[in-house]
Write a structure and sequence with these properties.
The chain has about 280 residues and is mainly alpha-helical. It has one domain: ABC transporter involved in vitamin B12 uptake, BtuC (Orthogonal Bundle). Helix content is about 80%, strand content about 0%. The protein is globular, with a radius of gyration of 19 Å. The protein starts with 5 loop residues before the first helix and ends with a helix. It comes from Salibacterium qingdaonense. Pfam families: ABC-3. It is a multi-pass membrane protein. It is found in: Cell membrane; Membrane.
Length: about 280
Amino acid sequence: MMELTFLERGIIAALCIGLIAPLMGTLLAVRRSSIIADSLSHVTLTGISAGVLIGGTMQFIPVHPLYTGFAFSLAGSLFIEKLRQEYASFQELAAPIILSAGIGLSAVFMSLAPSGQNEWYDYLFGSVVSVGKGDLLFILITFIVSGLLFGLFFKELVFVSFDQEGAAVSGIKMKTINFLFSFLTALVISMSMKVVGILLVGALISLPAAAALQLASSFRALVLWSIVIGEAAVLTGVISSYHLSLATGGSIVVSAALILGAVLAWKPVSARIFSRRNQL
């Protein structure tokens, strides 16, 4: 890791994000909770700005913004689950409440923090060249932890995502799984923000899953297609952003959006082709 160039660090980070983020997106899509990713990304921005503020004003306290971002994201995800329970008949209110509070606090902290525009730009829209050794280490650790948790509890997470009442009746500990779901969501958002950017991480989580829904005929196929599309989007976005001097997060999201558009355009064409073959 010590001998990697900045571009190699960025590509490794992007590959890790391209695998985990779409996987999280499939579970959020099944739960019909994709907007949670956008809400938590703004809460993560609150944590980032708080970390920059603390580090700038209290230099004797070593604070890394990525860690404060993760802490705020986890707290926000847990609070969303609490609000969903409080507003059982209006669960869709939970995400906008958190999103609004996150934006407001972020604006306050950013106005107080002694930081330049370039640093905020990297956090908001991502930058492949800004992934340092410490950032890559954080991304690799969160990637390994989230991968292990997905592997150990994937069946339970899928069951709860499809049918919470059925999962509760079958004996699954709902509080544990919901906390794990919140923890994983916070991990994925935190590990993605350095490359994709806080404002665009929700799109990387949602767009590959949206494209995969048009192609998959089973949940396993949905997961595989989401990962393939996610990896294709991050690789295309990182390489194009480096050679064309574009925002990394924007390039990745535009690549994912173009893939989704191509899938939506191809689906009716393929349906006509198959229908004509069946007629013959």
